[in-house]
Amino acid sequence: MPTPRGAAGRHAAEQEGRRLALAAVFEAEFGQRTAQAVLERTLADGSVPEAGAALARHLVDIVARDREDLDAMLARLAPAHPVVSLARMDRALLRCALGEVLHSPATPMRVAIAEWVGLARTFSGEPARRLVNGVLGRVASEVVGTDSATDNHRAT
User: Fold this and answer.
1) pLDDT band with cut points at 50, 70 and 90 for residue 5
2) CA-to-CA distance for 95 and 7, rounded, in angstroms?
């Protein structure tokens, strides 16, 4: 399906892509299928705009490829919340969020942080929202050395 026109359409498509990536990574936590297989099953009908599908594939690929590195970073940034002790949804949220913040230079960091904090609030609740916000804020400060609210760059 073509991407809806305009900035609002692209934003909506990207929001859908984040939601689909989160759902795929979450479902893969149960061990029946890989996140890539789950995502491709969802995208097979062609109803997702291309911008959303592309972002979802990108995020799922990052999580699959860099899962150990993402988990090590989570362990360092949130030592009070061991990765293995987190709820499956919270692990999926944090892995996807870190993947986008660290490896998606086309998305301004503050936008990525706001989007993932919103998804955490929607799919997990206030404690997860605070955790995601805190972890991503620390990443933004460490990666850039500035306040995350003004940044739109990534380390590569």
Assistant:
1) low
2) 26
DSSP result, 89-121: HHHHHHHHHHHHHHH-TTS-HHHHHHHHHHHHH
Read off the tokens for 153.
């760059």
DSSP state of 84: G
Taking the domains of the chain in order of start, what are their residue ranges?
6-150
Q: Which residue in this structure is represented by tokens 């850039």?
A: 144
User: Domain 6-150 is classified in which CATH homologous superfamily?
Assistant: NusB-like (1.10.940.10)
Q: Other CB atoms closer than 10 Å to residue 117's CB: what's the count?
A: 21
pTM here is 0.87
Q: Which amino acid, residue 87?
A: A
The packing angle between helices 88-103 and 50-77, to 10°, is 110
Report the alpha-carbon distance of residue 114 to residue 140 in Å, rounded: 12
Average pLDDT, the chain: 90
State the maximum Cα–Cα separation within the chain, in Å, rounded to a whole number. Answer: 44
Written as one string, the DSSP assignment of 24-79 is HHHHHTTSSS-HHHHHHHHHTTS-S-HHHHHHHHHHHHHHHHHHHHHHHHHHHH-T
* φ, ψ dihedrals at 126, nearest 5°: -65, -45
Residue keyed to tokens 């919340």: 81
